[in-house]
Amino acid sequence: MALRRGGGGGGALGLLLLLLSAACLIPPSAQVRRLARCPATCSCTKESIICVGSSWVPRIVPGDISSLSLVNGTFSEIKDRMFSHLPSLQLLLLNSNSFTVIRDDAFAGLFHLEYLSLANNHIKALPRDVFSDLDSLIELDLRGNKFECDCKAKWLYLWLKMTNSTVSDVLCIGPPEYQEKKLNDVTSFDYECTTTDFVVHQTLPYQSVSVDTFNSKNDVFVAIAQPSMENCMVLEWDHIEMNFRSYDNITGQSIVGCKAILIDDQVFVVVAQLFGGSHIYKYDESWTKFVKFQDIEVSRISKPNDIELFQIEDEMFFVIADSSKAGLSTVYKWNSKGFYSYQSLHEWFRDTDAEFVDIDGKAHLILSSRSQVPIILQWNKSSKKFVPHSDIPNMEDVLAVKSFRMQNTLYLSLTRFIGDSRVMRWNSKQFVEVQALPSRGAMTLQPFSFKENHYLALGSDYTFSQIYQWDKEKQLFKKFKEIYVQAPRSFTAVSTDRRDFFFASSFKGKTKIFEHIVVDLSL
């Protein structure tokens, strides 16, 4: 019987196609393609398709297919949105194929999928969040695959910890330390899959020679000495703008140091000056600013170079290192009304730095000098004074000594302008050398730490400054990053709002604030 052709759609066949199209919500042209026969290697029903040894992926099928099995096929990869035309799938078996690659959006749109098997393939890695659309997933089979359990597997490691789906064991083929282990048994990827960096957060348009930080009433402050501008600038962390903003300004003459001292609920700032004597300022709540509290006699301190704050038992002290030829480095003590000169340490040595160190539970001061090796003074409990104890031999021309601890071990960093700076370790009897760092032109070698990351910042007047990071395995500092700061004079770590910063003062350029960030290598 001949079919009548008409303008509307081709008679009975056209009507049939239109009805099927309406039922399946796809255009008539697509329904023609849908009528292709089921391949010989497949078994097809209204609700399921099972293919063995085939590379055929059904593209045009009824919308109510709920089960698809492609077993022992020859697929080289699972492409993006490969099954998105089957939104009703509840079971997808892709066992024993030869694919090694699964694209990011391979399972996109399969919101009703409950069972997924990728067993016995050659999968070594899965793209991040490849299962993100599988809201209904109950069971996932990854048996027969061995994964590279490196940083790219970190997301899968975390997903396995959080998912409610039942997932087969995920075995590792590498790296060597995880070979034949289960991914779930890996302790953590935090160390291997993260690194750190320093990025410029804020640039302050002025020169500076020292930076000190202090906390008061849950706020973070920074005091910056600016000799050329004759200021001690106090900055406050702005919790809204997420920047350091101006809070107060202490004026003076050639200010070279600003050191904050917190006693009970009082905040003091020792302002060391090259001319006009040094002074102590106190924060006045009624004036909401720092006002002069006390003078430091000129006869004792004529060329201050460093201020070091320390506490012995319940008593508060600070020491000023004097670098003049007739200098008299002096210890000052708090007596509930003010600070008074407590002990003169020694004369004629042009001290450049003082560092308070606890060595085996005993209080010590290490004085650096241009005219002798660093000397170590020990606190005498009977006389309650510092007395000479020892020195650090063969370390002439040390500008500064800084102490720090790593894993309960005491270390020193010794800065030298000419020759190599040193890192030394206390071995219960003496300080022994750990590492020499080339440091021509260096004025500061500052240790600092953020959580478990330990650094040394080596500032140079002649080249880029270097940041070194501690290598736990080699037990040495290794070069980590170069930063450019003109004539750096100090480096100071400051933490606030769960963020870590690193101030770099500059004697000839702008003061820079770097942020210490953690970089996730698994992303």
From TrEMBL:
Pfam families associated with the record: EPTP (PF03736), LRR_8 (PF13855)
Localization, UniProt: Secreted
Signal peptide: 1-31
Gene3D superfamilies from the UniProt entry: Ribonuclease Inhibitor (3.80.10.10)
Chief place where the protein resides: secreted
Entry keywords, A to Z: Glycoprotein, Leucine-rich repeat, Repeat, Secreted, Signal
Lipid metabolism is among the record's keywords: no
Top-level taxon: Eukaryota
Keyword Ligase recorded: no
Domain LRRCT: 145-194
Cellular-component GO terms for this entry: extracellular region
InterPro entries: Cys-rich_flank_reg_C (IPR000483), EAR (IPR009039), EPTP (IPR005492), Leu-rich_rpt (IPR001611), Leu-rich_rpt_typical-subtyp (IPR003591), LGI_related (IPR051295), LRR_dom_sf (IPR032675)
EAR repeat residues: 197-239, 243-285, 289-336, 338-381, 385-428, 430-472, 476-518
Protein name, as recorded: Leucine rich repeat LGI family member 2
Organism: Equus caballus (Horse)
Gene field: LGI2
